[in-house]
Specification:
By secondary structure, the chain is of the alpha+beta class. It has one domain: Translation Initiation Factor IF3, CATH 3.30.110.60. Helix content is 41%, strand content 21%. Strands 1-2-4-3 form a 4-stranded mixed β-sheet, sandwiched between helices.
């Protein structure tokens, strides 16, 4: 997993401000299908928001860790029910400071 500096994290948060969630984790939880869709979103955009329809903060944290471990991504932010995830492409489109 890529370790982000505070400057890089701040940069990605600013880039993500206008983004809409591309995947939603619903009542079924984090399934293989949801993981596949998150992977597709990361392939296409590198930086995505995921909305979680669950009130349990610990479950959301566990899902964020599982997503990042499974998809070799990096958590940027977990705020409320939104997860911000980053995974650079082979030829990164987002240039980190």
């Amino acid at each position: 997993m890529l370790e982000l500096t505070s400057t890089q994290r701040k940069f990605l948060k600013a880039r993500a401000h206008a983004l809409k969630p591309v995947v939603m984790i619903g009542a079924g939880g984090l399934t293989e299908t949801v993981l596949r869709e998150i992977g597709r979103g990361l392939d296409a955009h590198e930086l995505i928001k995921v909305r979680v329809q669950n009130d349990d903060r610990d479950a959301r944290e566990a899902w964020l860790r599982e997503i990042c471990a499974t998809l070799e991504a990096t958590p940027v932010q977990h705020i409320g029910k939104l997860l911000l995830i980053y995974r650079p492409a082979d030829e990164a489109r987002i240039r980190l400071p």
